## 1
Amino acid sequence: MSKTRGSTHNKAPTPGFVADGDWLSATGRGVTVAMIDSGVDASHPELAGRIIDEVGAKVEGTKVTFLPVDDGDLAGHGTACAGIITRLAPEAKIASIRVLGASGSGDAQVFLAGLEYAVKQRYKIINLSLGTTKPQFFAPLHDLLDRAYQAGCIVVAAANNLPQPSFPSIFSSSLLSVVKSEETDPLKFGFHYGEVIELTAPGVSIRTPWAGGGYRTLTGNSFACPHITGLLARLVETHPELTPFQAKAVLYAIARRNTAETQ
């Protein structure tokens, strides 16, 4: 299985990393993104050849295991998110970890197991366009996100679309959390340092691929999240040793430059 693995002994980015602009022309080559979602339609024209692994949750009592699947996306949501990532990083690969069912909903315990699976596989970037509001999962998710951080996994999570905190997006110390903006240029993302949800990215009226070969125009934080993930795939291609802490610092520096250029 091809992955870009994390390390706990990494060099910091060079001082000119943001300014040199090399990442702008990167395509995500050599980078695998773990998509924890409803699956991915690997036959969609925009995703064909980009899916390197597909597993789905099998629940037996309290035990959750992940086995290979070949029936794609059960709801369409994962295909939409994966398509946004590969548009920004067309040579990045997607590892689909299916935890949601046909209704686009799922069990928080299965979601937790899917995230743990991705961390154990040490996928460098993990996209979470989902979350849970159930308070009993606060502590186990917090612990798991700390493990992901220590393993060098860069986790990107969407904020809740409703005015209620969801986990793990509020764990801003160990992941990158994203909320939608009306900005249309994915390179003009924002960073609100010190807020619970720090990053903003395009998430309004986004035309995305959909399961079955079609397209939909969608709005939501779920679709802002993969915009940041796609840009991270470019950054990781040019700097494979990037740690979660460094990733946040670099995105903050880029966002500050974006703001300065518009003033």
## 2
Amino acid sequence: MNVAFIFSFWFVILNFLKVPYKPRVISGMLVVILYTLMTGLGPSVVRATLMLLFVLAGKLIDRDTHSVSLLSLVAVLMLIYNPAYINDVSFQLSFLVTLGLLTMADVIARKFNNVPNWIKVPVLIPIVAQVWVAPIQMFYFNTFSLYSVFANIATVSLLSVISFCGFV
């Protein structure tokens, strides 16, 4: 979320300054790369960055991306670079949650079509994420805490506000 948030924040600022589209995208890509380097290249940040960079590169050449295929490509590239990532819990959790959100969030959101988005999004995303990480959580940590679902729902809405204030 932070990678996309940083890009969006940069993109909006440059849009406000009337910078043309392609320079906004290219400079945003550089800002995201800089942020990724500053965070220490954790697997989840690298995944998010690579996915965003591929999507943006596609936008620059007027191509659309298929999200699950892109996720698979990024996983393969990261494993070619460092095969030990396959045993990294953060790598596994990051890719599994992303896969779950890409494949299930839209399906579940359509089931609750009559619920307003401001309620649906902060509730459904943590539930889908928690369901998808449950097997790994139980395997590595020998537990599954039900309160974490409610804690995630409570903090999702606040997280974007806190991140925005922190970046400002």
## 3
Amino acid sequence: ETALKAIAQDFPADAKPLEELAALYKQQGREKEALATLEDAYRRQPEDVDLRIKLGIERQTSWDIDGAVEMFESVIQRVPDHSEALLLLGILSEQTNRIDRLRDIQETATRNSADAGATAFLTALLYRRDKRFDEGLAILATVPDTIEPIRRAQLEGQFHDRMNHPEEAFAAFER
């Protein structure tokens, strides 16, 4: 911590030492300090897209939903096919019952040729909301296991549950 603070002070235009310090704070369970440090890093390099993603995630973790949305949207404005930002914003929209916003995000992902797996995941979220369980399960099967594996398994379990496939639902939930 002392070394990272010193490096951050010696290189005031470089956000990387602050990002590393924030990661250290996270590892130590010091959430508020991690968020404040990422905010400082962002002020140093506001154009850094990856830093915006990290800050958005940290804001979401601290229940600053509007702040998280701001970061994810700012990434999409700069890089319209940024799959991670689209995915994170879509999931956040779904979790906060902003389904019209989720539809817009899924359409943006499709229109801008974002990663096919991320776009399929967003579509599956919409299909669950629209009670299109067969279609949702089919499109979810096209999502690679590397994309949101826990949420993917939960979504698969929910589709199977709604379709009265208890064994498949339990298997997905266990996974």
## 4
Amino acid sequence: MAAASRAFVDMQELHLAAGRRIAELVGVDAAHVCTGAAAGIAIMAAACMAGTDRDRIAQLPNTTGMKRKFIVQRSHHNPYDQALRVAGGEFVDIGADADELARALTPDVAAVFYTIAWFCTRESLALPQVTEIAHRAAVPVIVDAAAEVPPPENLTRFIKEGADLVTFSGGKAIRGPQSSGLILGRKDLIEACRLNAAPNMSIGRPMKVGKE
């Protein structure tokens, strides 16, 4: 961190290079560094709504003309939901019911939002079942797994179970800087995350990762 503080870098180039290196180390398709898992939720949501379209990215949180609904199991609601709403997303609640999930996958759904956390104690559909149903409708699944490391195997586990994007906190048990986090997953969606994050003029612009 001290060495980085003395160097001037192009932040776009640094994000791309850091993402490639982290993806290589972890063993996933792609990675993006963010300022924590809450920022990761907002950026993942923005990526699913606006994609890589520069005009749409600049338009958020106004979602006119975009898919803006995120299906969530009621048992997964928690205070971090606000991060998704910041990006302009709207929740569609379902129970722990596969048929209800399938019916909810309408053309205006941007993604299914799934939380893996110690406080999600009520009944819920398992992630592999959710991803199978969502992918049949060509809908991505985004996962908040903020505190799910250790074990380190979880960095790839949820992607192997079908998740398209997963965010982790860097400042918890990973023991990185407090204002750090990771988004891991599908290469095209990670590129959308990058474009919806700082230093781009986007919903993620205030969530700026320092070069250090």
